[in-house]
Amino acid sequence: MELNLDSEVLKAYGYTKENITITQIGTGLINRTYLLSPVLEDKKYILQNINTSVFKNPLAIANNLKAIADYLLLNYPKYLFIKPIPTITGEEMALVDDEYWRMLPYIPNTVSLDVLSDPKQAFEAAKQFGKLSKLLNDFNASSLEPTIPGFHDLGLRYEQFTLALNQTNKQLKGLAKIEIDNALDHRYILDYYNSYTHRSDFPDRVMHHDTKISNVLLNAEAFQGICVIDLDTIMPGKFISDLGDMMRTYLCAFSENETDLSKIKIRLPYFEAMIKGYLSEMKNILTETEKELILFSGRYIIYMQALRFLTDFLNGNIYYPINYPTQNLDRAKNQFKLLAEIALNEKELQGIIEENLV
C-alpha cells in the first residue's frame, strides 16, 4: 500500500515525494511505521510517527536513545544499536504540525516474527535482550527519563484496579466476580515484590520493557539474533520487567486473546530455550537477589497484565481496543490461567533455572 506523507516530514530528512517511495509496514499497535525507499540510493529507511497519546514526552525517548547510543558507541562500537538518524538540521526527531517523527536505518536480510514457532527463536530473542542489558550494566540507569511513567509499577496497577473496583457498576462487578476474587487472592505477589525492594542487590537497570518476539530482528535465513528494536520503552526498571515479559509472551502458544483456556499451557522447551538464551548473557551479571526472583518475574508481569485487563473491563474498556464487550475480561481470564500454569509447573521450571545458573 503506497501512501503519501506530509512533504514537510520528508523535507526534514532531505527527501521529497518525487525521489522516494513510501510503503506502510509493521503490525505494531502504537506507532505508525513506514518504509522509505530513496530512488537514487541503495539504502532504505524506517520512518515512524510517535503516538503522543501513549508517549506524552517524545523528547524523553530521543534523549534516552541518544545517551545510550553514545555510551555503546564509546564502549562497544561493534554492537548494532539502531539509533535514530538526525534531521538535516541535527534534531533527533522531526516536529511537523505538532507530530513527532523519527527516521531509523533499515537493516536488510532480517525478519521480525509475530509468533514463535521454534524454541531456537526464543533462545535467540532472549539472548539479544540479555546482551543489551549486559552491555548497559555499567550505564547509569538513573540518567534516563521514564517514557511511560509507572509502566511496570505493580503497586500503581493494583491501586488502579482497586479504584476501578470501587467505581464500577454492579453489572460489570458481577460479570467479573471470579476474576476480581482472583486478583485479590494474588495480592501476595505485590507484597512479595515489596519485601525485596529494600535490598541493595536489587538494582535499577536499563530495561527494554517490551520484550515480545516482534521486537527482535533475526537473520532472515538462519534466524540468528541480530539486534533489539522498538526502543521507545527503554528506561530504568528492574530486571524482572524484561524477563517476566518474555515469560508472559513466549511460554504459551496462544496470545491473551485466546478464549479457550484449555489451550493456555506452558511450553517447557520454550521456557528452557528462553532461560538458556537470557542467562548465556546475564548469568554473571545478575545479583543473588535477582537470581532468586527469576521465576517470580513471570508471576509479577503476568499478574500485572491480568490486573490491567481486568481494570480496563471494570472501567468500561477505555484503554485496550476490543472487538466485543467482554474481551478485556476474557483477556484477564487468560492471564490468570497462565499464572496458574506457572504455579502448576513451578518445580520443573525452577529446576531448569537452577541447571542454567550453575
Describe the structure.
By secondary structure, the protein is of the alpha+beta class. The chain has a five-stranded antiparallel sheet. It has helices at 7-12, 58-75, 119-135, 154-167, 170-175, 177-185, 188-194, 239-250, 268-282, 288-292, 294-314, 327-344, 346-357; strands at residues 20-25, 32-38, 45-49, 94-96, 99-105, 110-111, 205-207, 216-219, 225-228, 235-237. α3 (119-135) packs parallel to α9, α4 packs parallel to α11 (294-314) and α9 runs parallel beside α13. The protein contains 13 helices and ten strands. It is 45% helix and 12% strand.
Overall CATH class of the largest domain = Alpha Beta
Helix content bin = 40-55%
Q: How many structural domains can be distinguished in the coordinates? A: 2
Question: If you compute it from the alpha carbons, what radius of gyration comes out, rounded to the nearest whole angstrom?
Answer: 21 Å
Low-confidence stretches: none
Instruction: Look at the structure and name the CATH superfamily of the largest domain.
Output: Aminoglycoside phosphotransferase (APH), C-terminal lobe
Work out the strand percent: 5-15%
Count of helical segments?
A: 13
The best one-word shape is globular
Intertermini distance = 51 Å
Placed side by side, the strands forming the largest sheet appear as 1-2-3-5-4
CATH architecture name of the largest domain: Alpha-Beta Complex
Largest sheet features: 5 strands, antiparallel
SS-based structural class? Answer: alpha+beta
Q: How do the helices and strands follow one another from N- to C-terminus? A: HEEEHEEEHHHHHEEEEHHHHHH
Number of strands: 10
